[in-house]
Amino acid sequence: SQNIYILGIESSCDDTAAAVLHNGRILSNVVATQEIHQKYGGVVPELASRAHQQNIVPVIHEALSRAGISKNDLTAIAFTRGPGLMGSLLVGTSFAKSLSLGLNIPLLDINHMQAHILAHFIEEPEFKKPDFPFLALTISGGHTQIVKVSDYFQMEVIGETLDDAVGEAFDKSAKILGLPYPGGPLVDKYAQKGDPKAFPFPKPKVEGLNFSFSGLKTSILYFIQKQLKEDPKFIDDHLEDICASIQHTIIGILMDKLKKAVKQTGIKQIAIAGGVSANSGIRQTLREAEGKYQWKTYIPKFEYTTDNAAMIAIAGHFKFLSEDFAHMGTTAKARIKM
Ligand code: KG4
Ligand code: ZN
């Protein structure tokens, strides 16, 4: 049998990541998270690009060394072509191209959003894989989509956000509460001890399978401002209940559309992908949906939810198998369709 070693490189936003897969199985998965952005309350593109330049060589080195292989063992190199921040994408793209040229091995260009979904196909002994067709709910800092997945690279967006992404809704709400960036994981943490019904927030009315989150952010802002006028300690005293209520509202919005998508497509297999699928409330709700709605739900291992290179490598693995190689003229692309 064939021995396929794929190096995956991810640099689309603020994480520099590299991973090595052997026949679809993880040998190493390294992520260098850029702390620099925290004090700015969001990712600063120019700083991200510079940090990628500093991190990329050590991160790839570490991935190869943890995998216990040398660069000469590699079969092909997969990299994130987009979507993402141009300056960040360029670092990974240029590096991947140079390495593939230097080692004289194939280059595989990967769509970051497809990769989030394909993370479900990383070989894991106790990890069930979805069958085609399935619906993927991709929820990250930049995207909120419902995708009909018919095959590894046959994906159709059937619903998406008209404004903010779910991750932004979490992060902007967290910012209103004075929590540091990225606030999503902190909202999740406090929500676990709060009452999800403490403060009802309105759900937006949006047609079809599309989403909108900017109104929610505004209503949270107004609500908090009003409460603070009456009680300057409102946030401190009610942080857990506020977070639980925000998270509950966001989950409700997502579930309403998922139910609609299932009804519309007749597909009852649901996979979640993207950074926000690390959220404990969303994971719990989807697990419960198996019994409640007879869905089959797929929840990725925690380390494959937020940005990582293992997902880029597994996407590369399938592209390699179908001999769908990139050429040296390939360029980074800030916006790419599914
Ligand atoms: O997929 P990702 O790592 O990067 C993008 O491609 O955007 O997603 C990052 C987003 C951030 O908005 C972050 O706050 C959110 O995922 N996030 C969470 C949780 N963990 C990460 N949001 C809510 N609950 C979490 N546990
Ligand atoms: Zn992502």
Care to describe what's here?
- By secondary structure, the chain is an alpha/beta fold.
- It has 2 domains: 5-120 and 305-321, Nucleotidyltransferase, domain 5 (2-Layer Sandwich); 130-300, 2-Layer Sandwich (Nucleotidyltransferase, domain 5).
- Helix content is 42%, strand content 19%.
- It is built from 9 helices and 10 strands.
- It has helices at residues 45-67, 86-103, 112-118, 166-176, 184-191, 214-230, 234-265, 280-293, 310-321, and strands at residues 5-10, 15-22, 25-33, 76-82, 107-111, 134-139, 144-151, 154-160, 269-273, 296-298.
- The strands form 2 sheets. It has a 5-stranded mixed sheet with strand order 3-2-1-4-5, sandwiched between helices. The protein has a 5-stranded mixed sheet with strand order 8-7-6-9-10, with helices on both faces.
- A hairpin with a 4-residue loop joins strand 1 and strand 2.
- It is globular and about 65 Å long.
- 49% of the residues are buried.
- The model has no long low-confidence stretch (mean pLDDT 96).
- Bound molecules: 5'-O-[(R)-(carboxyoxy)(hydroxy)phosphoryl]adenosine and zinc ion.
- Residues 112, 116, 140, 274-275, 307 line the site of zinc ion.
Tell me the domain tally. Answer: 2
Secondary structure: helix percent: 40-55%
Strand order of the largest sheet: 3-2-1-4-5
CATH class of the largest domain: Alpha Beta
Cα shape:
globular
The distinct bound ligands, ions and cofactors come out as: 5'-O-[(R)-(carboxyoxy)(hydroxy)phosphoryl]adenosine, zinc ion
Portion in strands: 15-25%
CATH architecture of the largest domain: 2-Layer Sandwich
For the secondary structure, the number of strands is 10
Would you identify the regions where 5 or more consecutive residues have pLDDT less than 50?
Answer: none
Mean pLDDT rating: 96
How large, in whole angstroms, is the Cα Rg? Answer: 20 Å
Quickly give the structural class.
alpha/beta
The number of helical elements comes to 9
SSE string: EEEHEHEHEEEHHHHEHEH
